[in-house]
Amino acid sequence: MRIAMIPLLLVLAACASPSPEFLAAPRQDLQIDGIDFAVFQKANRAEVIRLGYLSRRDRERVPGLMMQAAEQASGCRAIPFSLKTRVPGDTAEARINLKC
Questions:
Q1: Average pLDDT of adjacent 10-residue blocks, the chain of 100 residues
Q2: Which range is the signal sequence, renumbered to this chain (predicted)?
Q3: Which pLDDT does position 15 carry in this prediction?
Q4: Cα–Cα distance for residue pair 62/58, rounded to 1 Å
Q5: So what's the pLDDT on residue 86?
Q6: What is the Cα–Cα distance from 77 to 95, expressed in whole angstroms?
Q7: What's the CA gap between 37 and 22, in Å, rounded?
Q8: What is the rounded end-to-end Cα distance, in angstroms, of the chain?
Q9: Whose CA is closest to 84, among 76, 93, 71, 75?
Q10: pLDDT on residue 11
């Protein structure tokens, strides 16, 4: 039974779910510079989730790409320096303020 659970856990770990604030927001998937993102937008805010694994070295460029993903998915302008993560330095999830 435990062995059968491993594939299920791997599938669930690959899912990108929004935070409670963005649960009703539509999801847009896009790829920028070879990195996949899921973007959820509600009004003038976006939550961007990076999908997949990246090495520590490859993560340096992610915050800028998250800003681009928010702009492309929403059609709005990302407000400079508005990117916030729940864990400082985290490149897996960010919230960005938008000017629409």
A1: 53 69 95 97 97 91 97 98 90 96
A2: 1-24
A3: 65
A4: 8
A5: 87
A6: 14
A7: 15
A8: 50
A9: 93
A10: 46
Alpha-carbon distances, residue 39 vs 4, 5, 25, 56, 67 (angstroms) = 31, 29, 9, 22, 10
DSSP 1: -
Cβ contact 37:66 at 8 Å:
yes
CA atoms of 23 and 74, how far apart (whole Å): 16
pLDDT recorded at residue 89: 80
Closest C-alpha among 83, 99, 80, 81 to residue 91: 83
The answer to whether residues 32 and 61 touch, using CB atoms and an 8 Å cutoff, is no
pTM of the shown model: 0.82
For residue 88, give both structure tokens: 């400082």
